[in-house]
């Protein structure tokens, strides 16, 4: 989603060969780089999304739920891609290509299929699908040793 420009830059002027070096750096991340990125998405995005999902389903406007389902699917696909250390061909193919990758969290496929089909009119179905995905994501993170939460601050 974010690294495509580093792999196919079209420079008008590059006398010091900066762009080939940039491409090489983007092509050679370490396993720890992937692990760090996954942990960031889990805590920085997915954890926030599930909090928003629960707030909206209890108190808020259900009109926000379709957008939230799209975010669950999109960031879930990023996690699947990072976990498999594979680039997606284009931004428009992220969701279908993520469904082809192995080791997907339980519930991910259902959310992605809802989003791709546009079946986002029933709030209860969106909430149930996203909650199921969240539960699958928690198990998936634990299975693979990813950090989804930390110890509470002692005050």
Q: Which features characterize this protein?
A:
single chain; 155 residues; mainly alpha; globular
- What structural class do the secondary elements suggest? mainly alpha
Please give the alpha-carbon distance between the first and last residues. Answer: 38 Å
Count of individual helical segments: 7
Order of helices and strands: HHHHHHH
Strand residues, percent:
under 5%
Shape: globular
Radius of gyration using CA atoms only: 18 Å
Low-confidence stretches: none
Query: Helicity, in percent?
Result: 55-70%
The largest sheet, given as strand count, sense and whether it forms a barrel, is:
none
According to DSSP, the number of beta strands is 0
- Mean pLDDT, nearest integer? 88
Description:
This protein is an all-alpha fold and 155 residues long. 65% of the residues lie in helices and 0% in strands. It has helices at residues 4-7, 18-27, 31-58, 65-84, 94-99, 108-117, 123-144. The longest helix is centred in the first third of the chain and has 28 residues, at 31-58. The N and C termini lie far apart (38 Å). The model has no long low-confidence stretch (mean pLDDT 88).
How do the strands and helices of this protein lay out in sequence?
Layout: H1 4-7, H2 18-27, H3 31-58, H4 65-84, H5 94-99, H6 108-117, H7 123-144
Helix pairs in contact: 3-4, 3-7, 4-6, 4-7, 6-7
Quick structural overview:
With 155 residues, this protein is an all-alpha fold. The longest helix has 28 residues.
